[in-house]
Amino acid sequence: MSAREYITRFPEIREPLLNTRSAKGKNTRVCPAPFDLTDLKDLDPAETMPDIPDLSEVETVRHFTRLSRLNYGIDHGMYPLGSCTMKYNPKISEIIAGASAAIHPADSNAMHTILRYCCLLQDCLLEICGMDACCLWPAAGAHGELTGMLLIKKAVTLSGREKNTVLIPDTAHGTNPASCAIAGFRTKSMPSGEHGYLTAAILKEHLDEDVAALMITNPNTLGIFESEIHEIAGLLHDNGSYLYMDGANLNAIMGIARPGDMGVDCLHVNLHKTFGTPHGGGGPGSGPVMVKGELEKFLPCPVIIKDNTERYTLSWDRPLSIGMVHSCLGNMGVLIKALTYIVSLGGEGLREASISACLNANYLKSRLIHHFDLPFNTPTLHEFVLSDLRQKDAGITTMDMAKTLMEFGFHPPTVYFPLVVSGAIMIEPTETESLDELNRFAHAMETIAEMSLNREQDLHESPRACPVSRVDEVWAARNLILTWDAYESNKGDVVSK
Amino acid sequence: MSYLCQTSHDLNIILDSIGIDTAEKVFSSIPEGMRLHRKLDIPGPLDEESLRKSFACRPSGVVFAGGGIYRHHIPALVDAVASRQEFLTAYTPYQPEISQGTLQGIFEYQSMMAALTGMDISNASMYDGASALAEAALMATKLKGIRRIIITRATHPAYRAVLRTYLQNTHDIEVVEIPFDPVTGRTDLESLENEADADSALFVQQPNYFGIIEPMEKIAKIASKAGFWGITVTEAISMGIMKRPGSYHPDVVAGEAQSFGNPVCAGGPLLGFFCVNKNHVRRMPGRVVGMTRDHDGKESFCLTLSTREQHIRREKATSNICSNQGLCALRASLYLSAMGPEGLRYVASQCASGARYLMGSLHDKGIQRIFNAPVFHEFVVSMDEKKRLALQEKGIIPGIPIENHYPELKDAMLITVTEMNTKEDCRCLLENI
Questions:
Q1: Looking at the complex, does the CB of residue A315 fall below 8 Å from at least one CB of chain B?
Q2: What is the CATH number of the domain that holds A194?
Q3: Number of folded domains that form chain A
Q4: Taking CA atoms, what residue in A is nearest to B139?
Q5: Beta-sheet strands, E only, within A369-428
Q6: B356 and A38: CB-CB below 8 Å?
Q7: HEC string for B175-192
Q8: What range defines the domain where residue A133 resides?
């Protein structure tokens, strides 16, 4: 199979900037006009019109439709981004969430129903994770982490313990230390063991009185289950410290093992990963936080209360709460999509999804280790990490291979992460890929490994069949053209040669 | 429902290749004692028709509620185009060669937000208005010499609450609230004058939470003495008619742009926006898209300034934020493009005119405003809980009670009028009071 056979997905077009088609009077939209316009002098109105493009409806539609064709989505093909869990996004979830689109959060009549959904979602998440209490409001994974670390900070502060350090293994997401910093913690990085997971022995070396918590991802970003987590939790608890779990990789263990049973005190989950809500080109996500026991009283406001007449209301009467984390409630549309996903699969369906996710990943791994270096030989679950070690001698890097994968019609895996592996290639196919698609991906990777032996130049110059060739990110950072006004004054500089 | 696709034949091929004989063995690395030995107790599985029936929900018929989340007309093209899978199901555009659609869409969003706010630069968006304001305050605390955050009490209560949540462990920073004038509803300028100094970062909401237009010229003059200052906007539609916040030369304009093409959706997802003048670009939180060129010299786009961000800088990053609200920002671009300058101005005028119409009708019925300064499209009246609940029973949401946030404003209720309301809605409210 040649690369050409895969090239079906992108047109060779450029789309001019939206403002370049603007001309006064093009937009003839008739807006709703329920009221007679009155004198608005008391508003001290601006003397000029808003400075946005003036376009016809069809121009707007065509512009953005053309832009959409320059994108790659899950409905195009496999999206094997490790730790991002790019699974299929069920269409029914959009329809169900759409039914709540017109409900204003102050509409108590309708919100009663919405809060009932929220309670159901909380119950489902608590059952899946084995935890005691849940807050649905954080708007993304990193927002959930911040919320979780604020809970832990409050707990240690109120108990009068002077604890300011959070331990983080070197395989962690970058958001972990950044969230800790805002919550007022110092972070200390810890090496993973030689087998790619944290051992109790390593923790003991780093554990001291100042440690408030350990933040761990399980399975971790190498796809490896932290098999000593129970012992690790014991050590932390004996030290008066908390175990925080980043639930980014929950997709590997639904119905198989539960963070709460492992000794986790607090975790966030990423609904946009595990529960199949669309990523939307970078959001909206949703990062609910769950806790055990004593941390519950610190959860953000408001909390949902169910009274004895089965009415659902919100309460801000939480004297120990860390406070509010969102303008209103949370990313309700995303919450409803995740709930739709959960009840459409049911408990067994979720378990089967995790099994299939792990099998698919291990299948790909069993094929690709013949061609690529596998830095850790420990068993993995839903994802695995390769490196470019075997291609390096030919001068081929992970970046070259990632960009070449696009020629074959695939989104590249996560690259250069986790940081513990040089030239990391982190692959997570998810459960929604067929064997046929997995084979096509494996074949593309194998072809790339072969190309690294005799067609190095093609790899360096990839991609050639995408809407643009390899993009100069250094130039972007140096010139900082961030608006079309800046573009107008720099035009000559953008188009080189 | 199930979205799995391996046949039993496929499964055998997969197991063979892995070298295990049963699917369960893929979990051999999870110690037995940590396994769940029972089924998850979760409802389902449900088919699509059952899902539709289980999750049906209807809004009340007449709604005059806003308070930071606004019902506005959304042109049909916004849903039609934003629901294209190429936008909806794409990841963050880390691989620019196959993400030019998302990237150019965000670049255009940044361009329009910068133009509407009158600032140099916009980021790719934030979670919501409250976190945008909180991040602006965090950004200010990292500037040399800033020891106090001054915020007007007429700023949205949830925004002030989130700001305090974000700053609760920044112990060397004090948060000070500036009272409002009980007659006009405007921020008390004398208090502001007394507090603003070079050690402080100052934040003002315009229009304020009560819908009142703040005297920005005077505030800007006072704010120029502060070390840093910002304007919060919770109703982006107001920028369709009012003077651009950037014309007062703040350091940052941050707030909520849900009104641009995003439904109210029971409170979220929302669309935080964050615009700065160019001195602050390297301190700005969140993602940003820049124009660049590809290997062949062709114009293209990519995420840029990532050296500020968590995946590079880890604990030293300008913020912990990772995702933006990509799809909501795209919807804002679609909305603004669909409405155009005339349309945006017209919607803003309709909202303001509608508020004046209802205000007048209520006045005729003996229901008075609590404050007397001019408003954009929201105003505060007094209505006791009994009356409000009686209306609610009839499917009329007359406004948002705000006494819990402002105990001194007994029975106060915030009424909002947008172009989604009609004269018939107003009549219905008046007849049932």
A1: no
A2: 3.40.640.10
A3: 1
A4: A182
A5: 384-386, 414-415, 425-427
A6: yes
A7: EEEECECCCCCCECHHHH
A8: 92-343
